[in-house]
Amino acid sequence: MARKLRQLEALDVDVLTGVGPKKRESLSEMEIETVLDLLTHYPRRYIDRTQQTEIRDLQAGVEGMVLARVKRTQGRRTRQGRSLVEVDIFDGSGYLKCTFFNQPWRAKQLKEGVEGIFFGKVDMYKGRKQMTNPGVDLVGDRTGRIIPVYPQSQKADLMTWELSKFVEEALDRAGEMVDPLPEQFRDELDLVDRTWAFRSIHGPETLNAAQAARKRLAFDELLRLQTTLVMRKRAVERESRGINHVIDGPLVPAFHASLPFPLTGAQQRAIAEIDKDLAGPHPMHRLLQGDVGAGKTVVAVSALLVAVQGGFQGAFMAPTEVLAEQHFLGMRQLLGGVMITDDNTLFAERPVRVELLTNRTGAADRTRIHAGLLDGSVDMLVGTHALLTEAVEFRALGVVVIDEQHRFGVEQRAALRGKGDDPDVLVMTATPIPRTAAMHVYGDLDMTVLDELPPGRTPVTTRWPRGPLEESEAWSTVRTEVEAGHQAYVVCPLIEESEKIQARSATDEFDRLRAEVYPDLRLALLHGQMAAKDKEAVMTAFRAGEIDVLVATTVIEVGVDVPNATVMVVEDADRFGIAQLHQLRGRVGRGAAHSYCFLIGEGSTPEGQARLEAMERTTDGFELAEVDLELRGEGTILGTRQKGRSDLKLASLRRDKDLVMEARRVAFAIVDSDQTLDKHPDLADEVQLLIDEEEAEFLFKS
Ligand code: ADP
Ligand code: MG
């Protein structure tokens, strides 16, 4: 009988020869508890014995790696009493001296005749090449041309050759493994067999074999995850009846007619796609992605109005109070001229009623809003997660929009959905994420991309001043823009420690600018610690053009929409992430006039520099998202919100884009022919390894 992954997961690593309590602990430190963990602890790289750099060819000042044998080892103490171990190694082409400070145990480890991989920077000492405190990886008695090198624990008391030995035994014990991928797809995608893949990734005959093995195992990871996501999507569709919304009512056309601009092609496409979902029998579950300023709000409001025109209510949930307030104000303004028929009023018409609910809403307002939601007189509710509290009950919730920017969890989305009887859900993200990454974070949703900005936008000219002279250009541009009748933002440094300190430093900066730089201009301050009333007053004045320069913290990150603002200075910009800088910059360039963004900051780390350079180079959110993924790695983008993510050990959303697409296609093909995987029991078993019982029950219930 072929082995299942589940069986290997049930086997503790201590069954392996040589894994005593001490080694068991070291393995545990590397998060290797079971035989499956060990088999999925993949080599970090491979050494090809025949393709090694020779000592002769090492260059001073450069990182090098050689495979060599220890010829002589000598331990002693320096005059200062530090331990010093000097090791001479030889590889046939030449000798290299390796010097270890404060690692007296190296004398015992690196005995004469031992073979190992030595890597580190090469320097010159007294005319000879040497390495100081190089990394060492003992090869042991492994034979074969290709040697796998494993990631090791910090304490490094597990050598890669020991891991190799354990893995070898684990592979022997595993024997023939179950292959959950139907042969048809294996052939189609040119994927090798699973058992062969496990053997070859740990002990490849050639580097090509290792590549083929990697591709197969990476595909398996992606397939497990995509299968889970696709099943989740289909289960939700199966479970719910949904509302057949009326999409040809009067409200949406009235709304579009009231806008001072025509919809963009992308907006029209998005609205049509959403309408189709809304009219359909299944509840919508759609992600709306769009770059900053692409005009997502109009699309969201259109969806909410579809609910309203059919006698349902809409809810809009934002991740922060500031955002909720912004959206509320914006939506009120957008809906100002839209009337709804109401036979209870004298004129048989009334404005669409929008209310705001956050934790700051006073008790009296809260009671009034709760009542209005219950009797149906509130058409739309905007708010934070306060919408999820028990007291919030709708008469008939029809459409839910969640503006989330990765901030809400699957459970919270579900909780809001639970406020109605299978309402349609639109999730919006203002931070573009690459398509492949989106498939992981939002793989259970359909996707719409607003890939076109409203016309008349010119890209914001972005500068990262190198030096004080260029920096002064930033401050003078603020002045010239204000003199030309425009407005400016100055964004104060991000201080992670506390909002209070951040507010303090913004206040200081505000005082400095007012006293020393722009005594003659109208300045105002905006930060998160101010009372809502005061913030609103400042924003209203800024919108009305009564303020020239708004000195603010990141509270203005999203949602603020003042087309007359044409210049932004971001201080200590290297402290911000790319997504945040992109959002901030999106506050300018919203009108017809040319806009500027100055990113002041030293770029003290290479990453900080790369971020600022990227911002200077492009205004395309999707391109920036790719750079971000590149710089930060995928873990941070994907987060740990969804189970199964940790299963991605080999697959990379950057390098394996095609594989991600293929896995998604195969997952759809399998699930749509076999919704609870009855005909694919091995795949079902592996999917169940990734999810908890509750979800399994939901997904596998037919
Ligand atoms: P997003 O939320 O996608 O960042 P918004 O919905 O805030 O973008 O829209 C950005 C700005 O563009 C707003 O001022 C909005 O009124 C304006 N806008 C939206 N759609 C259009 C359009 N079709 N033509 C011109 N301006 C538009
Ligand atoms: Mg529907």
Word description of this protein:
With 702 residues, the protein is of the alpha/beta class. The chain folds into four domains: 5-44 and 167-210, no CATH class; 50-143, Beta Barrel (OB fold (Dihydrolipoamide Acetyltransferase, E2P)), CATH 2.40.50; 211-456 and 635-644 and 656-702, Rossmann fold (3-Layer(aba) Sandwich), CATH 3.40.50; 460-618, Rossmann fold. The strands form five sheets. It has a seven-stranded parallel sheet, with helices on both faces. Strands 18-23-22-19-21-20 form a six-stranded parallel sheet, sandwiched between helices. Strands 2-3-4-6-5 form a five-stranded mixed barrel. Residues 637-645 have low confidence and may be disordered. The structure holds adenosine-5'-diphosphate and magnesium ion. The site of magnesium ion has 9 residues, from loops.
Q: Gyration radius, to the nearest Å?
A: 31 Å
Give every kind of bound small molecule, once each: adenosine-5'-diphosphate, magnesium ion
Mean pLDDT: 88
Helix content: 40-55%
